[in-house]
Write a structure and sequence with these properties.
63% of the residues lie in helices and 8% in strands. The chain is mostly helical. The protein has 2 domains: 4-50; 63-136, Arc Repressor Mutant, subunit A (Orthogonal Bundle). A 3-stranded antiparallel sheet has the order 1-3-2. The termini are far apart.
């Protein structure tokens, strides 16, 4: 017995259909899990406290908070940003990586390190040397 006759005799059509349905169902489950993964991660970020209907100690940042931070940074003049970040850059040496400047500014508690460094780069106060190394373009004010 060969061909379609053998497939029919040994329930090949039912097996093929069952296999297709299993694979399709698995893909649907996988798609659903991936599309809802952000909710699962938020649950774990907030911790088990959300199970007990307790508020998390660190609330999630909203777009209002981000907009407020951007507005306060816009209130700062580029010269004020330079006066805050220039001493940090001087301590790092003539050339430095942006990650070093970011970590130093974060440890000193300076406001908005990402946005400030972005402004410094856009104003050409920080210029790239290549390979992630930057140097300060402004002359010393001393």
């Amino acid at each position: 017995m060969y061909g379609f006759e053998a497939i029919t005799h040994y329930n090949g059509w039912a097996m093929a259909l069952a296999g297709s349905l299993i694979v399709f169902s698995g893909l649907v489950v996988l798609t659903t899990v991936i599309s809802q993964l952000h909710k699962v991660l938020l649950f774990f970020e907030n911790g088990v406290a959300s199970l007990n209907n307790k508020k998390s100690s660190t609330p999630a940042r909203t777009t209002d908070t981000k907009n407020a931070e951007a507005e306060t940074l816009q209130d700062l003049d580029i010269n004020q940003i330079i006066s805050l970040y220039r001493p940090l850059a001087d301590k790092l040496g003539e050339s430095f990586e942006l990650t070093q400047l970011y970590e130093t500014s974060q440890s000193k508690g300076l406001p908005h390190p990402h946005l400030s460094i972005k402004e410094l780069r856009q104003s050409a106060a920080l210029l790239p040397l290549g390979d992630g190394i930057f140097y300060w373009n402004q002359p010393d004010e001393n």
